[in-house]
Automatic annotation (TrEMBL):
GO terms for cellular component: membrane. The keyword Cell inner membrane does not apply. It comes from the Eukaryota. InterPro entries: LHFPL. One of its GO terms (biological process) is single fertilization. This is LHPL2 protein. Belongs to the LHFP family. It comes from Dicrurus megarhynchus. It is found in: Membrane.
Length: 228
């Protein structure tokens, strides 16, 4: 018989698992990993409201995507074009970034799988006589290691020609040059930290759903068990 067991710790772990997976996925897909040096607006870039030139803009560069201004779109308020600069995996600007993409993709796939499974832990607490929380926690730990490898390798690619075109000639491996780090890089770091927190917290979720109080309510014949 399926018993729906909801505890504060198990629900918090489930929510964190979902948030971490989405945060890492959004960061990976974003082009805001590097914020390039300011580029002056061309004579065509005129603010229609003031009649003056617009302020210099900062193009952004991601692992496989970029955002830049299209100067001929002078009559459009939204004159920034974002999209992938690499149509195939081999076109990613650096071998280090290719490795980063692989490790991050593997970590995100694991996190998304765990996030999907975590929704069903209210009904299923074990699989093949092993706690599903412990299995998911182990997978989250492995995903965190993949994410760390990807984030360590990413700065090694700052010396590629693509990064130099955005960050200036002084950019090199682990040196930003004229660039600064964008929100996507910090989001990926924050998501990696939360991944390990989820891995540790999965043990607390397992303890909460297998506590003596839960077992007492199961013996009383309750199918829906909600505990703080």
């Amino acid at each position: 018989m399926c018993h729906v067991i909801v505890t504060c710790r198990s629900m918090l772990w489930t929510l964190l698992s979902i948030v971490v997976a989405f945060a890492e996925l959004i960061a990976f897909m974003s082009a805001d990993w590097l914020i390039g040096k300011a580029k002056p607006s061309s004579s065509e870039d005129v603010d229609n409201r003031t009649g003056g030139s617009q302020e210099p803009y900062h193009p952004t560069l991601g692992i496989y995507g970029r955002c830049t201004r299209i100067s001929h779109m002078q009559f459009s308020r939204r004159d920034t074009l974002c999209g992938p600069y690499a149509e195939t995996f081999s076109e990613i600007a650096s071998g280090f970034w290719q490795a980063t993409a692989i490790f991050l993709a593997m970590g995100i796939m694991i996190l998304c799988t765990v996030a999907f499974v975590s929704v069903f832990t209210m009904c299923v607490q074990s699989i093949m006589k092993k706690s599903i929380f412990n299995v998911c926690g182990l997978l989250q730990g492995i995903a965190g290691l993949f994410l760390i490898l990807g984030l360590i390798l990413y700065p090694a690619g700052w010396g590629c020609q693509k990064a130099i075109s955005y960050c200036g000639p002084y950019a090199s491996a682990y040196k930003l040059g004229d660039c600064s780090l964008g929100w996507a890089f910090y989001t990926a770091i924050g998501g990696t930290v939360l991944t390990f927190i989820c891995a540790v917290f999965s043990a607390q979720a397992e303890i909460a759903t297998s506590s003596d109080k839960v077992q007492e309510e199961i013996e009383e014949g309750k199918n829906l068990i909600c505990l703080l």
